[in-house]
Sequence to fold (133 residues):
Amino acid sequence: MASTSSDETSITGINVTPLVDIILVVLIIFMATAPLIHNRAMKVDLPKAAQHEKAATEALQVMLNAQREVYLSGKLVTREELGRFLKGLSASSADVRVALRADQSVPYGEIVGLLDVIRGAGVRKIGLEVKPK
Fold:
């Protein structure tokens, strides 16, 4: 048989480019939403306020729960460790921001003590997180 110039060749390979594109988009979505999911995983009963602002996304998250345990970005730390870490961070960058989440059952004196540790480390931009009413 003589072959003609219009012979069709079959495509035997799989084009994975669309699959890679979809996987990268899903990965970006998960990376963007992971901090939001992580914050909801830790139980802190925030006080409610009518006047509030959204928390800055680039702020360090410091949490004081009802058992008076201190967490820095989800990791349990002592007040001394928190002070040392923030002091080192504020020495290298003057624009350190901290968002403090404290349970509403924690006495005011405990919160002031934690604020004193944060300010003593050189951090001047501190926000207190609340729930909207």
